[in-house]
Each structure stands twice: as structure tokens, then as C-alpha cells.
Amino acid sequence: QVQLAESGGGSVEAGESLRLSCTADRETYYSGSFMGWFRQGPGKQLEEVAAILTGGGVTYYHDSVKGRFTISRDDAENTVYLAMRSLKPEDTATYSCAAGGVGNWRKSRAYKTWGQGTQVTVSS
Questions:
Q1: What distance in Å separates the CA atoms of residue 62 and residue 34, rounded to the nearest whole number?
Q2: pLDDT tens per residue across span 30-51
Q3: What integer is the mean pLDDT of 14-40?
């Protein structure tokens, strides 16, 4: 069974927008203290992007996406979103959703469950 499923990736031009979705089963959605998004670009290390507390409201962002990306959650749909605007070529990466986070949201090891990832490609 799929615990986390991402969608919404694609190929866009610089300056355009995309919204990623991460849908979880209920147990996974409410596990841990927060859910997050990570990304890994070509030839780069895995990088934290954003996180949101399980109770909602409090959000965290990597400096490189502050003001451009917005993480949110819809508890009725067991879904976390990552709205991305003003995309840049350096945002090109595979974006992965993670659940069951406890501790430091920036650390991949803080998360228990990971999705398969969705590709985002931004051309200049």
C-alpha cells in the first residue's frame, strides 16, 4: 500500500508556478510532529525545502525558497501542498514528501516515511 504519494511535478519556464501535492493515509498523515518537503537536484545533495507542523499553522522554509514557496495542509484530504512560484532553473530537482518528522525538520533522518518523489524541471 502507498503511504505517501506525490503529484504535481512537471516542466515549466523560469518565473512560472507549480503546486505539488502529497497525499497520505491517515495514520501516516498524523504521525510525528511535522511533514516536510525535500529536494535533490542533479549532482546535488538532498536539501530540505519546507516543513509544517502536524497541528498546522507553523511552517519552516529553507532560505532559498522563502517568499516564493508556501507549504500548507488540508486535513480533510490528508494532503500537504507545496505551492511554488517565481520558479528558477536552480529549483530543478526531484521533490520528495516526508512524514513522521520528529526533532530537527531540516534533517532527513528526522522523518519516518518518504514518498517516491516528483520531478520539477525549470528551464531558463
A1: 15
A2: 999 999 999 999 999 999 999 9
A3: 96
Q: What are 73's three cell numbers?
A: 495542509
Angle at 13 between CA 11 and CA 18, to 5 degrees: 60
Is residue 2 over pLDDT 80? Answer: no
Buried b vs exposed e over 80-119: b needs ≥16 C-beta within 10 Å? bbbebeebeeebbbbbbbbbbbeeebeebebbebbbebbe
CB 95 within 8 A of CB 5: no
Copy the grid coordinates of residue 118.
Answer: 516528483
The torsion defined by the Cα of 40, 84, 5 and 24, in degrees rounded to 10, comes to 120
Render 33-90 in DSSP notation, one character per residue: SEEEEEEE-TT---EEEEEEETTSS-EEE-GGGTTTEEEEEETTTTEEEEEE-S--GG
Cell numbers 512560484 correspond to what residue?
85
